[in-house]
Design brief:
- There is one protein chain.
- 42% of the residues lie in helices and 16% in strands.
- With 103 residues, the chain is of the alpha+beta class.
- The protein has a domain of 56 residues.
- Helix 1 crosses helix 4, helix 2 packs across helix 3 and helix 2 crosses helix 4.
- The longest helix has 15 residues.
């Protein structure tokens, strides 16, 4: 059970006592998942990216759009820059539907 912290003032001594109370939903375990790797994120990005997303992410991060293109192409510019670019782009395209390809 989940523990809920509460403060109660004692009637006799007038002191505030902190108590821990169990709630009924705390025994349930939340959803467990594994984080996506950079390669998996790049697959999702490439299927959902729209025109202008590279420039938008570059402006948000304050970097050159060329770095964004290189990071999304899988070329290593800088580990921290690559990670930030991939995460920011993934968050941007996360809610979009994948592009439909003509068969």
């Amino acid at each position: 059970m989940k523990n809920k912290k509460t403060s109660v003032k004692s009637a006799k001594s007038g002191k505030t006592v902190k108590a821990t109370v169990a709630t009924k939903n705390s025994a349930k375990v939340g959803m467990r998942y594994t984080k996506l790797t950079a390669a998996e994120k790049l697959e999702v990005i490439s299927s959902r990216k729209k025109r202008g997303d590279n420039v938008a992410v570059a402006k948000e991060l304050g970097i050159n759009p060329v770095y964004v293109s290189l990071a999304l192409a899988g070329k290593k510019v800088n580990e921290k820059v690559n990670e930030k670019v991939i995460n920011r782009m993934y968050n941007k395209v996360r809610g979009r539907k994948a592009k439909v390809t003509a068969a």
